[in-house]
């Protein structure tokens, strides 16, 4: 259990509640040293947040404003795996996998109301009446469901030091990226490849 308090953002239009987040969570980690050349780490977590701040669009008359609002109930859970395999004295293979899920279970809490035109949403605040879009049931933004990466690193001894060559392939799964929380606003997955070549001197005084 933890609690965190932050003053409501002054740069956002409106008068949202202060950010006092209560979190209930379980985090379990395990490490296995199968041998000198192989290591495996695993972790699982579950968190329950209350009054987490998030940005949403609030309709005031015919205009929409981007504001900071308090999400009443948010859940997040997932698993993470990391592995290291030494393929000899100069070559290492690293791999990592993260599977995460999050959901805004109840954004409005007790502030849910219906407009005269029949549309529904959350009451933004009493001083400046407005209706906030209700993102309940959607995932939090910028939280990829699945990520994984693999890195292969190899050291090449030379006369004055060591050259290191490493290659990384990473995959980032689909994620919610729009503050409108529309079905068509899911960002597609993407992958990336990186290659790096470095050098360090024999006395480890510098590296490039």
Topology overview:
Elements: E1 2-6, E2 19-35, E3 38-60, E4 63-86, E5 91-106, E6 112-114, E7 120-123, E8 131-132, E9 146-158, E10 161-172, E11 175-176, E12 186-187, E13 190-201
Antiparallel strand pairs: 1-2, 2-3, 3-4, 3-8, 4-5, 5-9, 6-7, 7-8, 9-10, 10-13, 11-12
- Beta-strand percent range: over 45%
User: What is the helix content?
Assistant: under 10%
| Helix-strand string | EEEEEEEEEEEEE
Could you tell me the radius of gyration in angstroms? 24 Å
For the largest beta-sheet, the strand count, sense and barrel status come to: 11 strands, antiparallel
Global outline: elongated
Strand pairing plus helix content: what structural class? mainly beta
Number of helices: 0
Please give the number of β-strands. 13
């Amino acid at each position: 259990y933890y609690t965190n308090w932050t003053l409501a953002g002054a740069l956002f239009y409106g008068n949202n509640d202060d950010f006092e987040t209560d979190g209930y969570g379980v985090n379990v980690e395990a490490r296995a040293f199968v041998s000198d050349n192989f290591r495996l780490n695993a972790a699982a977590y579950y968190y329950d947040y209350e009054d987490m701040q998030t940005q949403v669009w609030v309709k005031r008359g015919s205009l929409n404003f981007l504001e900071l609002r308090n999400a009443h109930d948010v859940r997040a859970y997932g698993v993470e795996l990391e592995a290291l395999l030494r393929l000899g004295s100069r070559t290492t293979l690293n791999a990592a996998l993260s599977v995460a899920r999050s959901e805004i279970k109840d954004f409005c809490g007790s502030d849910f109301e219906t407009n005269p035109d029949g549309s529904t949403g959350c009451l933004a605040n009493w001083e400046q009446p407005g209706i906030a879009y209700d993102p309940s049931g959607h995932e939090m933004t910028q939280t990829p469901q699945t990520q994984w990466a693999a890195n292969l690193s190899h050291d090449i001894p030379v006369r004055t030091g060591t050259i290191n060559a490493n290659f990384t392939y990473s995959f980032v799964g689909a994620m919610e990226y729009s503050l409108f929380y529309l079905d068509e606003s899911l960002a597609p997955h993407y992958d990336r490849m990186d290659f790096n070549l470095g050098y360090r001197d024999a006395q480890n005084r510098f590296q490039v």
